[in-house]
Write a structure and sequence with these properties.
- 34% of the residues lie in helices and 29% in strands.
- It has 313 residues and is α/β, with parallel strands linked by helices.
- A 6-stranded mixed beta sheet has the order 6-7-8-3-9-10, sandwiched between helices.
- Strand 7 (157-161), helix 6 and strand 8 (188-192) form a beta-alpha-beta unit.
- It is globular and about 75 Å long.
- The relative contact order is 0.14.
């Protein structure tokens, strides 16, 4: 499959001391929703800024659509849509006028642009707000407007940098649905976020970077197979004692057992019959429990184990 983005051995140092990117290499294939993850300071923003030629880098190469990316690559840039975390719209223009302005930077034919603007408004669900000014919109609606402005010209490559920060669940679902529609319509998407559930929901390929280089890449299933955690079991136990927790922590395949508000949390290594073995142990020790829940590892577990950090650290 064709590579839309190809970054090879990219290096970037700030002030001659801090190495933000350390031989970073990655590929984004045509038609992917590509999740780019990493803790704060991992190099995500530097990667995106280098990718867009907004920042010079020390060495390495960047190709987009098979061509070297430079600050003068206007033919490449016209095929890219960017939505940064910080909302960037004009306060004195209405929703329609904002989208029309940004679309007009790339689409000069008025008839075509009008259709593109209407398509963008429909994509993000702002049909009822065309004549509203940004100050009249909620935070979630303002995020939707920001996205519409970035994608109205129907770019082939879209970079979305934490587009759902601090929005309500309804707006988040609307935005994610819109991203999937853009992808279904042929756009390749690079997506960064601090919400792992979003990555699980929409991303086909995921790369985790830390200290400026890739530490893991693959589908969500492939990433989950990289870690030792195989299963997480939660049990509600009345009068849970530390003695019982200590006993559980010594059972086969148990990585850790903790007590939080009379709830026993057990993390297991990969293995068969973990749940049934735990239930047998509780029965043999006459332990009564009211609720028991088992779940497979999440991407957040992958992130924590591989980086030693929470995504929001």
């Amino acid at each position: 499959m064709e590579n839309i983005v190809e970054i090879k051995e990219l290096n970037k140092t700030y002030d001659g001391k801090y190495k933000a990117l350390d031989n970073l290499s990655l590929r984004v294939k045509k038609g992917e929703i590509f999740g780019l993850l990493g803790p704060n300071g991992s190099g995500k923003s530097t990667t995106i800024n280098c990718l867009l030629s907004l920042l010079n880098y020390d060495s390495g190469s960047i190709k987009i659509f098979g061509k070297e990316m430079t600050p003068e690559s206007y033919d490449i840039k016209s095929k890219i849509g960017v939505v940064f975390q910080d909302v960037a719209v004009f306060a004195e223009l209405t929703v329609y006028e904002n989208i029309n302005y940004f679309c007009g930077l790339y689409i000069f034919d008025k008839t075509q642009r009008k259709q593109y603007v209407e398509d963008a408004i429909k994509l993000v669900g702002l049909e009822e707000f065309k004549k509203f000014y940004p100050k009249q919109l909620s935070g979630g609606l303002l995020r939707r407007l920001n996205i519409a402005c970035g994608v109205a010209h129907k770019p082939e490559l879209i970079i979305l940098d934490e587009p759902t920060v601090a929005v309500d669940p309804q707006s988040r679902n609307n935005i994610l649905d819109g991203i999937k529609k853009l992808n279904e319509n042929g756009a390749t998407i690079i997506y960064t976020t601090h919400y792992m559930e979003e990555v699980e929901q929409i991303c086909k390929k995921i790369v985790i970077i830390d200290s400026g280089h890739v530490i893991a890449s693959g589908t969500k299933e492939e990433l989950k197979n990289l870690i030792s955690t195989g299963e997480k079991i939660t049990i509600t136990i009345e009068n849970l004692t530390q003695e019982l927790v200590d006993k559980v922590s010594k059972l086969k395949n148990v990585i850790s057992a903790t007590n939080e508000n009379e709830t026993l949390y057990v993390i297991y290594k990969k293995g068969e019959d973990n749940l049934s073995n735990l239930v047998d142990f509780l029965k043999s020790n006459n332990v009564k429990y009211s609720k028991i829940f088992s779940e497979l590892p999440s991407l957040n577990d992958v992130f924590l184990e591989l980086t030693g950090k929470g995504l929001r650290d």
